[in-house]
Write a structure and sequence with these properties.
By secondary structure, the protein is mostly helical. Helix content is about 50%, strand content about 0%. The chain contains 45 helices and two strands.
């Protein structure tokens, strides 16, 4: 064990299997060494997971586990090991110190979020952002309303401390605060929660204040189902700020803030140039937005001046915007400037966690701008310079090989074999990676097998392989499978993912254990045949992360749910069944009607994202009352999702009178059957008109009329009843016309 301490940064190369031979007690001692821990946190995820698994074997008691596992490695603790915590002061403080995944903290949030626990920590504001991400309608079902409001306000954090919340968490929060007197004190709540406000409740005099606070929200959080709310927000902002055209002033832009990330190109091109500062903070720009930014910059009407005055400092001052520019933009810089900037910018992109796809696009456009001014090589010999280890060590490699033919001619199979890791770390463009892959195959042509240590270094080049290529790879170790499944290198074609996983499983002793399931992930797991999935043991699924199985066929979803249902069935009905729901919810797309009905009485407050992912035949067999009890606090969101096909189909199958009992304005149900000739009592219909755009129906309108009650339908029923009475009267009197 002492030898591991001497490895320093080299520990990153130690295979996961080595740690299975070291006792958990030794690993607990090792993790108390700050220097060792710093280096160890850089190892692949599969190695960290193996390390934690060994520690858990020492003592599987939940409270002992969180004591033994280092804070930064708590994300590797299986979810089922995070149940049954006491509200002991030391336990609460330990939980609050650790780094968690959302799927983990949801399982104990109800323990740490209650008033008694937060008091021990000095108040809700001392809850870590890692813990606060566990807020859901399910996890706060037993927490007092006053405390829930405090938790919501505690989530108002910025920068690196921002609490990352999904849409279903945000809508849940809004449903808890919407009736409160301080709901229009917009600066009390997380900006992302404001995205889901009912704008008709925002006082006209306060609308600017509302949008000023909304400026810090993440507008990319909207799901496709609720994206219409994003459109409605901008329409309402235009009305509030008096925007009548596509020319936004500096003041408009300041108020809109992050909403600028949702604007189309016409606004970007015609607005004050300060809009570039806002767009620089956007998580992404679409092609239309990027094109508009480039047009605005090339116009010379920005603080960056005309293109002829641009230099390397200009590129640096543009922040992240160069990531989206096309070759026509880079034509304004000479090759040396582009090289120096690329060296600088690649470090910025790495620090910001920018993925390979975007870096690939950047390099392609820069390369294209260089090729536009140079003749393409037609010779089949290296004229730029042979690629060596020194060449590859340059931060901008393969910048000088903008001609693909030169890259091919100057790169030898031996160089690829000896420097594969360095090459695949720096090369992003697919056409270049194809050459790297071909050279590697050439290097091992004699043996027809690429060794395991080389396969682990393929990185993004692996995504360009064929099934025939994969058949030449040695894939026997979990480390190899893990490196191939690394999502940062891009998505896998299902047929290729299946070939890789099948090759691994063909090795004696290899199976779909929890480590393999975590390594493969839900999307790639769906590439396997259902007969293979049936071999997953309950224990393996129980100890695995929550897997997303949306890509699976319904047959595969059902199989995975059946395994999950058995794996997570608890021993004590009172709490384990609810815990079972939380542990099983990512597999509910394959759930049976019987299981879903069993949740009705458990106060689970199922969110609409899960509800709309259920099988159609399951949803259509749920009554209005069952849906009401199933959704719980999330019931108001049924109205927000009313334009979703599944919701519409369910609504049409219900009696309108029963839908009315929900009190959320859902219409479109079946008319009540006429069972009596008695005239109904008169119902008064009232209507109100507003000048705002509402998001409730999924469409925008400058004037919205709302009708309360069911006056129109009732009057129609009354007319039919009158006709029936008249017909009976005529028949009884034998009137002849």
């Amino acid at each position: 064990m002492s030898s591991l301490f001497t490895l320093g940064s080299l520990i990153v190369g130690v295979p996961a299997g080595v740690f299975t031979t070291i006792s958990g007690s030794q690993l607990i001692s090792a993790s108390q060494n700050p220097s060792f821990l710093t280096y160890f946190l850089t190892v692949p995820q599969v190695v960290r997971e193996t390390y934690v698994t060994q520690i858990i074997k020492v003592n599987s008691n939940s409270e002992t586990i969180i004591q033994n596992v280092p804070d930064e490695m708590a994300t590797e603790i299986p979810r089922t090991m995070l149940l049954g915590f006491s509200n002991n002061n030391s336990v609460i403080k330990r939980l609050n110190k650790k780094k968690w995944k959302k799927q983990q903290v949801e399982l104990f949030f109800d323990v740490i979020a209650v008033e008694g626990s937060t008091t021990e920590l000095g108040g809700v504001n001392n809850l870590s952002s890692s813990v606060l991400q566990g807020f859901t309608c399910t996890t706060v079902r037993t927490v007092k309303k006053v405390q829930i409001k405090k938790l919501i306000k505690a989530c108002r954090r910025r920068g690196n401390n921002k609490v990352l919340l999904a849409e279903t968490q945000l809508t849940c929060m809004y449903n808890y605060i919407k009736a409160d007197s301080d709901v229009t004190s917009f600066d009390l709540y997380p900006p992302d929660v404001l995205l889901y406000y009912d704008y008709t409740l925002v006082p006209r005099a306060s609308c600017r204040s509302y949008f000023e606070q909304l400026a810090d929200a993440d507008f990319s959080v909207f799901s496709s189902a609720l994206s219409y709310k994003r459109t409605a927000l901008f329409n309402n902002a235009r009305s509030c700020l008096g925007i009548t055209n596509t020319s936004l002033t500096k003041d408009d832009i300041m108020v809109l803030g992050n909403m600028c990330c949702t604007l189309d190109g016409s606004y970007i091109e015609n607005s004050d140039s300060s809009i570039l500062e806002k767009l620089n903070n956007c998580p992404d720009l679409n092609d239309g937005q990027a094109s508009a930014v480039q047009t605005l910059l090339l116009s010379g009407k920005t603080q960056y001046g005309v293109p002829s005055t641009w230099n390397e400092q200009t590129l640096q001052d543009l922040g992240m915007l160069p990531l989206y520019m096309k070759s026509a933009f880079y034509d304004n810089f000479d090759k040396k400037t582009k090289r120096r900037f690329l060296k600088f910018f690649l470090k910025v992109l790495k620090k910001n966690g920018v993925g390979r796809r975007k870096k690939r696009m950047l390099k392609r456009e820069i390369r294209k701008s260089i090729r536009n001014k140079a003749k393409r090589s037609i010779v089949n010999e290296c004229t730029v310079g042979t690629i060596t280890q020194v060449t590859i060590s340059d931060d901008t490699f393969p910048f000088d090989y903008d001609d693909i033919n030169q890259f091919n001619c100057c790169l030898s199979a031996a160089t690829v074999q000896e420097n594969l890791d360095a090459i695949t770390t720096k090369v992003d463009q697919e056409e270049y990676l194809m050459i790297v892959l071909s050279k590697l195959q050439e290097a091992y042509a004699a043996s027809s097998t690429i060794p395991e240590d080389q396969v682990q270094l393929l990185g993004p080049a692996s995504r360009l392989a064929t099934v025939d290529n994969i058949n030449t790879w040695s894939i026997t170790q979990i480390d190899t499978l893990s490196s191939l499944m690394d999502s940062s290198n891009g998505e896998w074609d299902p047929s290729l993912a299946r070939a890789i996983i099948s090759k691994y499983l063909s090795v004696a002793g290899n199976k779909l254990g929890s480590t393999e399931l975590n390594t493969i992930g839900g999307a790639n797991l769906c590439s396997l045949d259902v007969n293979v999935l049936k071999n997953i043991s309950q224990q393996s699924l129980k100890e695995a992360n929550a897997l997303t199985v949306s890509n699976c066929t319904i047959e595969k979803k059902k199989e995975l749910f059946n395994i999950a249902e058995q794996a997570f069935s608890g021993s004590t009905r009172a709490t384990a069944t609810l815990s079972s729901y939380q542990l099983t919810k990512t597999y509910l797309e394959g759930a049976s009607l019987e299981y879903i009905k069993s949740l009705v009485s458990l106060n689970v407050s199922m969110d609409m994202a899960i509800f709309t992912s259920l099988q159609e035949n399951v949803v259509l067999n749920l009554t209005v009352n069952e849906v009401k009890d199933l959704l719980g606090t999330n019931l108001p969101e049924l109205k927000s999702y009313e334009n979703e096909t599944l919701v519409q189909t369910w609504v049409r199958s219900q009696l309108q009178s029963e839908l009315d009992t929900l009190g959320i304005g859902i219409n479109g149900g079946r008319a009540n059957p006429t069972t009596t000739t008695k005239s109904p009592s008169t119902t008064t219909s009232t209507s109100s008109s507003t000048s705002t755009t509402t998001a409730g129906s999924g469409s925008s309108s400058s004037t919205t009329s709302t009708t309360t009650g069911n006056g129109t339908r009732i009057r129609a029923d009354a007319g039919l009843s009158l006709l029936a009475v008249l017909a009976l009267l005529i028949m009884s009197q034998h009137i002849v016309v």
